[in-house]
Amino acid sequence: MNMYTLILPWLKKPSLPWHNFSCISLRHLLITLLLITPLLSRAVDVPAGVYYFDNSKTNYSTVKFVYGNDAESTTHILALTKTADGKYTFTINTTVKGQTHYFFTDTALPVGALSEKVTAVKNLIVQRGEHRTQTFKDEDNVPMVPGATFVPNKADLYTSGHWQVAGAQANVSGTLPVMYINTQDNAPITSKENYISATLYVDPMSTAGCPASGTKDSPLTLTIKGRGNYTWTGFDKKPYRLKLSTKEPLLGMTKSKHFVLMAGADDILGGLRNPLGYELSRCMKLAWTPDCRPVEVVLNGDYIGLYFLTENIRVDSKRVNITEQKDNSDEDVTGGWLVEVDNYNTDPHISVPMSDKSQDMWITYKSPEILSAKQEAYLQQQFNAIRDAVYATDKTSTEWEKYIDLYAMARVYVVRELMQDEEGFHGSFYLHKDRGTDTKWIAGPVWDFGNAYNNDRHAFIWDWPQFECFLIDHIYQFPRFQEAVKNVFGDFYRDALPTVDQYIDQLAATISTAAKSDYTRWPSYGTDDEMDKATKIKSYLHDKVKWLASQWGTNGTTGIETPHISDMNQATHIYDLQGREVKTVTRPGMYIYKQGRHVWKKFHICNVGNTTSLRP
Questions:
Q1: Neighbours of 233 (CB within 10 A)
Q2: What does the alpha-carbon distance between residue 421 and residue 338 come to, in Å, rounded to a whole number?
Q3: SS3 sequence, 15-32?
Q4: What sign has the CA pseudo-torsion 10, 12, 15, 18?
Q5: Residue 393: pLDDT over 50
Q6: Prior bond of 336 cis (ω within 30°)
Q7: What distance in Å separates the CA atoms of residue 278 and residue 447, rounded to the nearest whole number?
Q8: Among 150, 199, 333, 542, which residue has the fewest nearby CB atoms (within 10 Å)?
Q9: What does the alpha-carbon distance between residue 397 and residue 395 come to, in Å, rounded to a whole number?
Q10: 482 phi and psi, to 5 degrees?
Q11: In 10 A of CB 138, how many CB atoms?
């Protein structure tokens, strides 16, 4: 347990008498300790070697390198020389241990050793109106890599950046399948809006269950573009969207034309966040969860590292299996629908005002992609009605359940809670609805766990969120939803939790060697110790599980009551395990429940009478 774990929950308590002077002083002292502790403890070595600086974005007139340890009153300033290819270079002759700061700068300060603390020099450069880079990312050390190039992200005063190793200096590990992609005329992929033509082939590298796809001499054809928002703009290791000319079982996955390559550059837990989130989704028995598999990628002859090839979310008989509604149509606007509660106000969407939030809830429509006036009016009416029902003051009301499937929402919520993913109901929160006036909105599939385990694991995800949490904080106030959550969590705790550690360990071991190659290519993003990241993410998960068990218990309850079978609507059918439709249930047991055209689930009917309890 660290100081943050001990102090932050106490600092957050609203009952503390902060109006008392001594309490205020103590609070300020604790906050100060929290802020300065990382500064005191973070340090990197400056290894001996040759280094480079990419000045193409910053356009410094005079590039210099500054380093020092704030415990000493000496700061070192080195000059860089311009190379023939336009980069700037400098050499460290002897390794310097335990430096608290280093950065590149455009300064007129003289080269040599200054009798000043490095922090004072850093501040002096700012006071002089000169530019410099940031070289520490949050509380994490950013080690220097001999032979690498420091690449600033942009030209602003305090730009961040990363060390980049040329592709020729990093090689495939030989432990994972390798995907070779070549764009037409080796064109760079610079847009996430426009596809460009390319070819692809996969060398399985003797990986079990992974077929070859195409060959070097006869590759598959496809188009490719960038994808993502922050992950596209914030990192040099980019994610990509693939659209193959024909359906292919890439890496042994279900045949499709549509896949994405997730880069994981934003994942400080060794790229394990998304795979773990998807594994928990499968444990919760969501209707469909994206498959993702590790692969190393070579783009236009350049090794670009370890990626996860992932099924993207789309309407498809093998993915989100609903009726596909036509674009710009008035035929039957009840469905199917695939939408996302989105955290970006740029994609085509409707806006739903939320009285207690700082912004509207943006509903980006994925299918159909172009709406007629009638389709847009229906979608707006549906989510206005959902908001009103969820915000009802009477928490015994079941009005919201007329619109949203209770157990699907409980499953998605438990997954997000287990991952401490406070962004899970702010963006990348998908819902879908099949055609019909009596069909409900189904929460899921899950997507994007990039912000998992970034905050206090001893709190619900809406308690201290970094982002607005839409709907779920109000839905949780309904006792019937809490009951469903306890059932889902109890089943997971008893049946699935014991297998999750094994999943994490096996995945980490599988990608461990490739992660080292990725780290050589992207030392600012990756890790050279994948098993350490596995240990960390397991500890975070178990810490959250323990806290949730203290809130919900681990046994669940007796199930939720639903109307008697004879009263269910005509879109609902129940079958026994031999496939025979059951008109009247006379005894408890296992049955198959079908609602609408596609939603099949196995239920345990707990009791029989005027009401029949159905429990997944």
A1: 12
A2: 22
A3: CCCCCCHHHHHHHHHHHH
A4: positive
A5: yes
A6: yes
A7: 8
A8: 542
A9: 5
A10: -60, -40
A11: 9
For tokens 């082939």, the residue is: 201
What are the phi and psi torsion angles at 52 (to 5°)? -130, 160
- Pairing of the two strands 49-53 and 149-152: parallel
The residue ranges of every structural domain in the chain are: 3-40, 44-161, 169-310, 337-552, 560-615
Q: What is the sign of the dihedral through the CA atoms of 152, 154, 155 and 159?
A: negative
pLDDT grade for 154, boundaries at 50, 70 and 90:
confident
Q: What's the whole-number mean pLDDT along residues 121-135?
A: 88
Query: Which two tokens mark 413?
Result: 């919520």
Query: What letter does residue 441 receive in the DSSP assignment?
Result: B
For residue 250, pLDDT beyond 70: yes
More confident of the two residues 418 and 603: 418
Q: Tell me how far apart the alpha carbons of residues 314 and 254 are, in angstroms, rounded to a whole number.
A: 14
At 572, the pLDDT band (50, 70, 90 cuts) reads: low
Contact 492, 552 (CB under 8 A): no
419-to-88, 275, 283, 461, 540 alpha-carbon distances in Å = 43, 11, 13, 9, 8
For residue 337 the two structure tokens come to 């629908």
The letter for the amino acid at 214 is: G
> Distance between CA 77 and CA 102 in Å, rounded?
10
From its phi and psi, is residue 609 left (phi > 0), alpha (psi between -120 and 50) or beta?
left
The one-letter code for the residue type at 227 is R
Ranges 29-33, 129-133, 215-219: which has the least confidence: 29-33
Taking only the tens place, the pLDDT of each residue in 70-116 is: 888 999 999 999 988 788 999 999 999 888 889 999 999 999 999 99
Residue 525 pLDDT grade (very low, low, confident, very high; cuts 50, 70, 90): confident
Q: Give the model's confidence band at 578: pLDDT under 50 very low, under 70 low, under 90 confident, else very high.
A: low
Helical H segments across 118-179, by residue range: 118-127
Q: Pseudo-torsion of CA 465, 468, 472, 474, nearest 10°?
A: 100
CB within 8 Å of 58: residues ≥ 6 apart: 104, 106, 131, 133, 152, 155, 159
Amino acid at 119: T
Strand order in the sheet with 75-79: 112-114, 75-79, 63-68, 101-106, 131-132
Average model confidence (pLDDT) for the chain? Answer: 85
Q: In the prediction, which pLDDT does 375 show? A: 98
Q: How far apart are CA 373 and CA 64, in angstroms?
A: 59
Please report the pLDDT score of residue 602 as a whole number: 52
Rounded to two decimals, the pTM is: 0.73
144 closest CA partner among 259, 258, 52, 77 = 52
